[in-house]
Amino acid sequence: MGFFRNVATVFATSVARSPLGFLTGIVLARWLSVSDRGLYALLTTFSAIVFLLTQLGWAEAVIYRTRRAGVSPRRALSTGVAANGAFALGAFALCWALRAPLSHAFLGDVSARAFLLAAATAPLLTLGELLCGVARTLDRFDLHNQFGFLQSLLILLLLVAALVFGGGALDAALAVNLGVQAALVLVFGARIAALAGIEWRVDLREALASVRYGKNLYAQNLLINLHERIDVLLLAALGVSAFDIGLYAAGVSVVAQLRQVPGAIGTVLLPRLAGATQAEAAEFTATVVRPSLLVMLAAALALAPAGAIGIPLLFGRDYAPAVFPFLVLLPGVALVTISRVLGRYFAAVNRQRAIVALRVAVLVLNVALNLWLIPRAGIVGAALASLLSYGIEAAATVALFLADSGQAFRTALAPRASDFDEYLARLRGLLSRAR
């Protein structure tokens, strides 16, 4: 399957998932109390961060090792499941051992059951990410897309069953996340294993090679996602109430639908760049980032009035204070496209030290801004911290890309009318075949 078709299918899946995510946000807002909505955001953020700490860049390492080093997908999958799974289970055990201090510091002293449900979800997220990486390696973006779409659809449907019809609360919502992820890992694990094959042994040499490649990309992914998510935990650590965190989470849940776009583009871009020369990778990355940024800016402009009206209307009048943080976050998330897409260039050419150093600096800046602004402005301060750090990250990533690729800003990143020609031609072809 070609790059543009992969982009189209992944983008279409992201577009289809966006209303599902928005409806999920409405269900959570309407059928959980605002405070429980805040605790739900804290616990799902905790699950995501534990997952990020244990995934080790293995999904991308599988792509690189099979495309560049010629390792069989069977060996890459088998080694990845065993090694990545072991790290994830070890992290779960550590979290459970540290439950009391973690819960007290960052999670609002939630119940042991809620903590267990959140912590148990993290290893499944790790295995799911690995399976999606192997699917992309096999050029089976259909399976990657199905996994993501079913994840969003099943969570929505089961939340409706558990909260709306079942009268459940926070624990029920967390159990839905755990159950959906477990089912997807089992079903798609069997499908991917049937395609790639499986070896009942761990290739230690391959595991070390995967870690060597993946460590920098792992650091990037960890830093990127901490940058995006740590504000929620910092709000709790700085004494902001679960009620206010629930308001903030509602605004973030709407903005988060835009984050799927650069994520989808990066998902398709890495396999395409992995086999290219450095010059080819730089040129192709530039041709992708230019139209992507314009699309994201247009989407942000369209979403601003829709969110400002829709958040209090659909989530409830209690969520009206979420509108201002939402509007502050919106342009920052649009700028994320630049750093996320350009970051794939550095991963593909395996020159990641500078971009990792940049993301360390930006994360430190983000934390410092949150620590300064949250006590002064609450959830609006958290939104401002994200906006400022996203903008600085985008500008610095552009500078690194231009320096490494040797391209000039005008030739590499200035928008061109021809950037959309290939996409429009493909769209016309699809429409003509549909007729």
Describe the structure.
The protein has 15 helices and no strands. The chain is an all-alpha fold and 435 residues long. The protein has one domain (3-425). It is globular, with a radius of gyration of 21 Å.
Compact description:
The protein is mainly alpha-helical and 435 residues long. Helix content is 86%, strand content 0%. The chain contains 15 helices and no strands.
Itemize the secondary structure elements and their pairings.
Blueprint (H helix, E strand, L loop, with lengths): L2 H29 L2 H21 L3 H11 L4 H25 L1 H8 L5 H26 L3 H25 L4 H27 L7 H34 L4 H33 L3 H38 L7 H26 L4 H53 L3 H5 L7 H14 L1
Helix pairs in contact: 1-7, 1-10, 2-4, 2-6, 2-9, 2-10, 3-4, 3-6, 3-9, 4-6, 4-9, 6-7, 6-8, 7-8, 9-13, 10-11, 10-12, 11-12, 12-13
Structural class: mainly alpha
Shape: globular
Q: What is the domain tally?
A: 1
* Spatial separation of the terminal alpha carbons: 22 Å
Radius of gyration: 21 Å
Poorly predicted regions are: none
Strand content: under 5%
Q: Topology as H/E string?
A: HHHHHHHHHHHHHHH
* Mean pLDDT over the residues: 83
Proportion in helices: over 70%
Taking the sheet with the most strands, its summary is: none
Number of helices: 15
Defining key terms:
86% helix; mainly alpha; single chain; 435 residues
